[in-house]
């Protein structure tokens, strides 16, 4: 526990990069900058990266914290199988996506951030990390019920010796059961 | 609603003042660039000039402030000095990390506004050079200073370039990219998920702040934001000359070409003070770390808890304080905070460390925890200690009635408090203001009890001897238990001592009903100030804070204090 899973940091960095690409692209398009086709690309790239990176993966050790409402994104991302599970793929994907961002000023920051995220994902992939979806606990995952429970019990339940179970005359209040008739000492 | 003002008033006030200064600077600097000096600049840039300069001023303020809350030695010193005047004011200094984070968010926000405004600035500067038409004022303005390269307005000097290249070839642009990247990396590695799980990544990446501050200071050295010089304004008044731009400087006209210069860099004036203070802070930490610390005893407790008893010459502490510890043989650079579990009255100081990560595991092995035979004293690792630093627990003895709530390992500061209380009572010449302690320990499993149970048992015994059983009232809550243990409890429920901990006051199961607890205590101690101290998770803090506020009425006041680790 506590061993660094680089993918967790790469994920934060990539999500930030996606938001920055998106913002830069919106500025470029709304401000009607020159070369605004690159800005439009930046918007698309930003949205794509955000969708891919929003669902957090499951941690190898320790509790995984989900982002709010990430379940539907988890299902989408999971459906791409090895393409999204493997971090080498992600590292190269992010490296490729970020290149066109270097062509306009508005997307340069997002481009560099995504490049850094790509490097961290590469480190994660080299260490053998993988993206596992965080799925709700399913009923079927519980251990199957043992056979012995289907038969009636053969032995009485374990109890402490009779000495301990007996109601003590001097402390009737503390006892765990009530007698139908009063308890008296043997006097005959 | 209860006593919100007593609990939160000063914090809210500080935040409002800070926000107010931000707003004032923003508006003030926005308007500074609407003057005549900037008229021609605004011909090129419009309002984007002001939208870039206003957040820049706020960034100066916040970058100045951000270093201050993390100068823990300075704060500790201030806290001690203020404490004699006002305990409330002193408590504000506990919220240092919260304030540090708020300032960081503000820096991120202003950076975003600043960058977006500059995107527009670069775009329009470039556009002015590209539209090469001498009947366009922006183009004429951009041509000024081409000869001497000193009196120019447009930092983009030619049309044979593009904004990206300009950014990487100007001081402002290059430093801007570098420090923004540093800021983004610092922020992503400071997210709670990363910080709580991989402290090393957070700690090392955070040191990019050094690059951030160096770049920040040099950011304005290129004097890229340029306005008309004072002498030029006398000769070329924009209101009169702006429409004659096609004949500026020609024979027979009375409008010479305007001349421009940049503002001198200002940022260093804001940040140099805190930077020096922070350097002093690190020097103090280094000095304290060089003082020799000796481990006198190592105890391995169940539930992977390591206890270290240590001595250092001249070390003095108060209850509930914490220290930062460094173990060079485990890691040269890392310092980790731990609460002191010993009382000031003892001849040594101790910490109980839970083994959860790389560093704690390394420390455990360095102390011979994984070996079966006892470790020779000379083989124990060299340690360095910075501190102790004050936290809210110091205030415990200022209250007549006290509620202490510890969740899991959060009980550690209270070990110190309880021990100290006991020592104070033994030394009968001490007038102890605290008359009653209610102690709540919430724990998911029984094994973690061992070391603390020993402490409670010994206290219990000594209190009975002195006839002071009522002084300390404690409740231990098992918030999770296994089936087998539950069966055992049922069988032994008649025993006088608690079967798990051996303590007379029984262990309870599940979570406490706080409403009941607060009501009972409130009824028993009307007209009193009850200090509520928590060391535990944020959810519990929210619950207790609400309870304090809602039960503080008609006399009894519950004041909430939280440890912040």
From TrEMBL, chain A:
Keyword Electron transport in annotation: yes
Location of region: Disordered: 145-166
One of the Pfam families matching this protein, by short name: Cytochrom_B558a
Molecular function GO terms recorded: heme binding; metal ion binding; oxidoreductase activity
Annotated keywords: Cell membrane, Electron transport, Heme, Iron, Membrane, Metal-binding, NADP, Oxidoreductase, Transmembrane, Transmembrane helix, Transport
Subcellular location: Cell membrane
Spans traversing the lipid bilayer: 14-31, 38-55, 91-124
This protein's GO CC annotations: NADPH oxidase complex
Classification via InterPro entries: Cyt_b558_asu (IPR007732)
Family statement: Belongs to the p22phox family.
Oligomeric and partner information: Component of the phagocyte NADPH oxidase core complex/cytochrome b558 complex, composed of CYBB (heavy chain (beta)) and CYBA (light chain (alpha)). Component of the phagocyte NADPH oxidase complex composed of an obligatory core heterodimer formed by the membrane proteins CYBA and CYBB and the cytosolic regulatory subunits NCF1/p47-phox, NCF2/p67-phox, NCF4/p40-phox and the small GTPase RAC1 or RAC2. Interacts with NCF1 (via SH3 domain). Interacts with SH3PXD2A. Interacts with DUOX1, DUOX2 and TPO. Interacts with NOX4; this interaction mediates superoxide generation.
Functional description taken from the UniProt entry: Subunit of NADPH oxidase complexes that is required for the NADPH oxidase activity that generates, in various cell types, superoxide from molecular oxygen utilizing NADPH as an electron donor. Subunit of the phagocyte NADPH oxidase complex that mediates the transfer of electrons from cytosolic NADPH to O2 to produce the superoxide anion (O2(-)). In the activated complex, electrons are first transferred from NADPH to flavin adenine dinucleotide (FAD) and subsequently transferred via two heme molecules to molecular oxygen, producing superoxide through an outer-sphere reaction.
Protein name: Cytochrome b-245 light chain
Source taxonomy: Eukaryota, Metazoa, Chordata, Craniata, Vertebrata
From TrEMBL, chain B:
Domain of life the protein comes from: Eukaryota
All copies of domain FAD-binding, residue ranges: 293-392
Role according to the record: Catalytic subunit of the phagocyte NADPH oxidase complex that mediates the transfer of electrons from cytosolic NADPH to O2 to produce the superoxide anion (O2(-)). In the activated complex, electrons are first transferred from NADPH to flavin adenine dinucleotide (FAD) and subsequently transferred via two heme molecules to molecular oxygen, producing superoxide through an outer-sphere reaction.
Keywords attached to this entry: Cell membrane, Electron transport, FAD, Flavoprotein, Glycoprotein, Heme, Ion channel, Ion transport, Iron, Isopeptide bond, Membrane, Metal-binding, NADP, Oxidoreductase, Phosphoprotein, Transmembrane, Transmembrane helix, Transport, Ubl conjugation, Voltage-gated channel
Annotated GO MF terms: metal ion binding; superoxide-generating NAD(P)H oxidase activity
PANTHER family cross-referenced by the UniProt entry: CYTOCHROME B-245 HEAVY CHAIN (PTHR11972:SF60), NADPH OXIDASE (PTHR11972)
InterPro entries hit by this protein: Cyt_b245_heavy_chain (IPR000778), FAD-bd_8 (IPR013112), Fe3_Rdtase_TM_dom (IPR013130), Fe_red_NAD-bd_6 (IPR013121), FNR_nucleotide-bd (IPR039261), RBOH/FRE (IPR050369), Riboflavin_synthase-like_b-brl (IPR017938)
Membrane topology: Multi-pass membrane protein
Subcellular location: Cell membrane
Names of the cofactor(s): FAD
Residue ranges of every copy of the Ferric reductase NAD binding domain listed in the record: 399-548
Main localization (coarse): membrane
Gene Ontology cellular component terms for the protein in this record: monoatomic ion channel complex; NADPH oxidase complex
Sequence intervals crossing the membrane: 12-31, 51-71, 102-120, 165-189, 201-221
Protein name in the entry: NADPH oxidase 2
Gene3D superfamilies: Nucleotide-binding domain of ferredoxin-NADP reductase (FNR) module (3.40.50.80), Translation factors (2.40.30.10)
A biological process from GO: monoatomic ion transmembrane transport
Signal peptide: none
Ferric oxidoreductase domain sequence ranges: 66-216
Reactions this protein catalyses: NADPH + 2 O2 = 2 superoxide + NADP(+) + H(+)
